[in-house]
């Protein structure tokens, strides 16, 4: 645990250091651009750093840097860690970019208990009394902030790859990062596609289609890709990478299934989002697909009619929550989480991953899938 905490501190420091180098580039153009860096700091200051942790333990799983753990205090130790610290920090900046864009797509007002990026820009417009529509300004500025963060994630990754001693390993890590970026972008498209096209799809396909969204929008980039990027950067061979993929994909699915439950039933003080937010956004999740299978015709029609209404009242949210619970979908989702975690842990048995790293990965599996409501 201490090693993971120290790793998080190093990632925080690397992100801060990187933003400091970008601040003069931006402000030299105009002081009006300062909010772009300030809001970037705000969105990169929080979070659980799961992606950074998976990247680091993917790196450590190879064993090439095992004697240079995150507890090392020497300049040599920090230099040896530079490639993976920068890669882990790049993943966190990529994640921030994805959240900024995701909140715009979903019309979400909050993120981690505070205003989302486009809402911050919207508020800045309103407080300053500028011309034009403040909502349109907020959305446009938010899109550009997400684009800026996306570019910065690439720049920081490149700094880490340049510090790697094995050029071929760095190239493999870049390939994995590029694949992740493509998969999460098309996964986001699939998410918004399913929200709007679900009614034209065969009823028997809705579960599988919702699961496909989980795999490409979240599971791969939240768990599997960070593990593989870290391991590839450390020089892992094909068998080792396959073992991490076999562990990371089902764990990533379980991670998102837990998020889907939190999106419907989560406590706002814990999740940083209003309770039932996924219902207002119209998310066609695995949870919703499972609920529809067992609802009466009337209850299913009511769910379909209300899901996606941004003006849902607390009473309507409560009614939908009760319908989902009564359908048995919550128990079935919990069972899916358990089975995916079991599949992930089984993949570690007999793998080339050391016992010490296996223990850390098992601890992380518990942490990311047992978050409380």
Key descriptive features of the protein:
373 residues; mainly alpha; Farnesyl Diphosphate Synthase; two-stranded antiparallel sheet; Isoprenoid_synthase_dom_sf; metal-binding
Elements, N to C (H/E): HHHHEEHHHHHHHHHHHH
Task: Give the biggest beta sheet.
Answer: 2 strands, antiparallel
Total domains, how many? 1
Assigned CATH architecture: Orthogonal Bundle
Shape: globular
What level of helicity do the residues show? over 70%
| CATH C-level | Mainly Alpha
* CATH level-3 fold name: Farnesyl Diphosphate Synthase
Beta-strand segment tally? 2
- Given helix and strand content, the structural type is mainly alpha
Proportion of residues in β-strands: under 5%
Estimate the mean pLDDT confidence: 93
Rg calculated over all Cα atoms: 21 Å
Q: Flag low-confidence runs.
A: none
Q: What's the total helix number? A: 16
Family: Belongs to the FPP/GGPP synthase family.
Protein name: Polyprenyl synthetase family protein
Cofactor: Mg(2+)
Pfam family, one: polyprenyl_synt
Explain the layout of strands and helices.
Layout: H1 2-29, H2 34-44, H3 50-62, H4 75-105, E1 110-111, E2 114-115, H5 117-128, H6 134-162, H7 167-197, H8 206-233, H9 238-265, H10 268-271, H11 277-281, H12 286-294, H13 297-306, H14 314-326, H15 329-348, H16 355-369
Antiparallel strand pairs: 1-2
Describe this entry's structure for a reader:
This is Polyprenyl synthetase family protein. InterPro entries: Isoprenoid_synthase_dom_sf, Polyprenyl_synt, Polyprenyl_synt_CS. Its cofactor is Mg(2+). Keywords: Magnesium, Metal-binding, Transferase. Belongs to the FPP/GGPP synthase family. With 373 residues, this protein is mainly α. It has a single domain (2-369), classed as Farnesyl Diphosphate Synthase (Orthogonal Bundle), CATH 1.10.600.10. Helix content is 77%, strand content 1%. It is built from 16 helices and 2 strands. The protein has a two-stranded antiparallel sheet with strand order 1-2. α5 (117-128) packs across α6 (134-162) and α15 packs antiparallel against α16 (355-369). It is globular.
